[in-house]
Structure formats: C-alpha cells, structure tokens
Amino acid sequence: MGDADAAAIRAERSNWMQEHLAMYLDSGGTQGHIVDLSGLGGRELTTHCLIKYKGRKSGKTYIKPLIYGNVGGEIVIVASKGGADTNPEWYLNIVACETIGVQIATQAFEAKWREPEATERHEVWEYMSHLYPPYVAYQRSTSRHIPLVMLRTVRPIDVFRPDA
C-alpha cells in the first residue's frame, strides 16, 4: 500500500474520524465506544478507546480514537496507520512518554505502555487481526513491523473533555 495509499485512506476517513472523536468526547464516552466498521471490512461491534498524550516536540495535548482489544487485562492498540511505511505520529509521541491517558467508554485511566515481543506479540497480533481483519492487509502492504502497544492501567483519571 505505501504512504500515498495510506494517506488517501486517512484523508477519506478524516471527517468520519473527527466526527467520531467529537461524539465520543461530547457524550463523555456514552457514545462512540462501539462502532460498526463492517463497511470497512471490520466488525459490526468494533470497540474504540481514546488515547491522550503530549506531542514530543510541540508539548500540545492530543486525543485520538483507536480500535482496541483486551488481552489478559491489558488494553491493546495497533499503530497501523493504514499500512503506511512510517509509524503514526501518536505512536512516536507515546514512545517518548512513560504514561498516557486512555478512556474506554465512560472510564478513563492513566496507563503505562509496553510492546509485546516474540510469542506474545504473535498471539496478540492474531487476536487484534481477528478483531479488525484489515490489519492483515495493512501489514502485507508495508515492510515495517506494525507496532502493538499494550496499556496497563495505573490509576483512574477524569474522562477526557473536548477542550482539553
């Protein structure tokens, strides 16, 4: 697929993603947690979380909606960027932080992150590919190893707000 194709996918979905984020934030998480992605090759009941992190260069706070899974009590997100040849900015930013914020529906937490390795990574990838089948095509379209990020909650925090 490459960066150009991945960019086209992101541009096509940009308005949808902004609307999804606004709905999730404006509702305090009562809407936007579960979304039908069957029209994109996903599942009807696809779960989404919000991640909140600081820009490593700008210091600005960003909030991003992402598909997530739960493996052994840890939240799993995938840095797919639609199969682009470069990692998403959110991934580069969280790698520079020790903890990030994560919101699932109406509950938010500070979380520590890690990346699974070896056999665990393979098992987590299989699980996430089952949750959202397009991940398989994304991985095939790029030579980069698509990162998986596992989040372990540390403590509860306030749900995210549109103005923060």
TrEMBL record:
GO terms for cellular component: plasma membrane. Keywords: Oxidoreductase. One of its GO terms (molecular function) is coenzyme F420 binding. It catalyses: oxidized coenzyme F420-(gamma-L-Glu)(n) + a quinol + H(+) = reduced coenzyme F420-(gamma-L-Glu)(n) + a quinone. InterPro entries: F420H2_quin_Rdtase (IPR004378), Split_barrel_FMN-bd (IPR012349). Belongs to the F420H(2)-dependent quinone reductase family. This is Nitroreductase. The lineage of its organism: Bacteria, Bacillati, Actinomycetota, Actinomycetes, Mycobacteriales.
